[in-house]
Design goal:
The protein has helices at about 10-25, 45-50, 50-70, 80-95, 100-110, 120-130, 135-145, 150-180, 180-185, 190-195, 200-220, 230-245; strands at about 35-40, 40. By secondary structure, it is mainly α.
């Protein structure tokens, strides 16, 4: 059934997943991270070729916006001016993949690749992953809050949570890249080291990276103090993110 039959948040949730899948397809391309394995299966370009992989990502990205506009029932959006809330979400989705989102973060990531550790700072890493991993998490929580009737202050607190937990997710990813095998990860283990990428483990050491992940998780959870039990799901997500095995 069309997502419009359900919560007004659902089309945006599906759109975020389309954008996320697009980012994985494009990230795996030879001109980007050049990976052959994703979720335990050959990557899109390995199965269908680079041309189809690029077009598949483009199609997912455009369909994401079409789906939000077509299937979000504004009449079900609580709060003042539901049409404005819907336009706000569309704008935030666009920003999450642009020069201050995924594209900008990926460009800086590629720029830092192969540089000596002394030439890449923690601030560089945080900028990269605030605009990649954290950008999608940020728009995910913000879209749900906006379409659920949240006020500006509530949206900002959730965005602060997402910024921190998005960085924690990437720190955990860097740790898993050197501690897990490919079968567990579902992608090529040790890929960051082989590609000489800037990572938290490379800059902070393994134990330093683990401490950083815990610190970021704690900061993220503190942003939820004003929410009570209704934010328990997000607290559980935060714990899962730094404790996962893949």
């Amino acid at each position: 059934s069309p997502a419009s039959h359900y919560s007004p948040c659902l089309p945006s949730a599906l759109a975020v997943e389309m954008i996320h899948t697009m980012s994985l397809i494009h990230d795996d391309l030879p001109s980007m991270d050049d990976d052959d394995l994703r979720r335990g299966m050959p990557t899109c370009h390995k199965v269908y070729g680079e041309d189809v992989a690029i077009l598949a990502g483009d199609s997912l990205l455009s369909t994401a916006f079409e789906y939000v506009v077509k299937y979000t029932d504004a009449a079900k959006i609580p709060g003042n001016d539901p049409q404005r809330r819907l336009l706000d979400v569309v704008g935030r989705l666009g920003a999450s993949v642009g020069n201050v989102g995924l594209a900008g973060g990926q460009a800086r990531d590629l720029e830092c690749e192969g540089k000596p550790a002394s030439a890449v700072t923690l601030d560089d890493l945080r900028w990269i992953h605030k605009h990649k991993t954290a950008a999608l998490l940020k728009v995910s929580v913000a879209a749900g809050a906006i379409l659920g009737g949240a006020d500006e202050g509530q949206v900002e607190s959730l965005e602060a949570f997402a910024d921190n937990i998005g960085l924690a997710f990437q720190v955990a990813d860097d740790i898993l890249d050197v501690t897990a095998d490919s079968a567990t990860l579902g992608k090529t283990a040790g890929k960051d080291l082989t590609a000489d990428k800037a990572t938290y483990v490379r800059l902070m050491g393994l134990e330093g990276a683990r401490e950083e992940a815990r610190r970021l998780k704690d900061e993220a959870v503190r942003e939820l103090d004003g929410w009570g039990e209704e934010a328990d799901g997000l607290r559980a997500v935060a714990e899962f993110i730094i404790g996962r095995s893949n």
